Request: fold
Amino acid sequence: MTHTPVFRRLPGPDREKVVLTVDGHPIEALKGDSVAAAVLAAGVVSTRTTPVSGSARAPYCLMGVCFECLMDIDGEPNSQACMTLVRDGMVVRSQAGARLPAGQPRGGA
Reply:
């Protein structure tokens, strides 16, 4: 889900543009952006839902502390979008509830 972005970029040095796909939609970002910064700048309002209530969550601290920005990044669930830099061709999906790493059964190891 996207809306008109509430964030705007400050003037700075020119950086290379990259395109990533977020929930099936292409968005432009700048090389060096975190995935969280890119989705916020594109107007994405939710990056995940909580496992208990299904409430929408979005990046909050942007420094790897709160884990509100968890997304599925290039097939890797539970990735912190604020700590992952964008790459051209990256595929990102919003995360619904709790996700287990690939191959890990529910209930532990």
In short: The helical segments are 35-41. The CA atoms of residues 19 and 28 lie 5 Å apart.
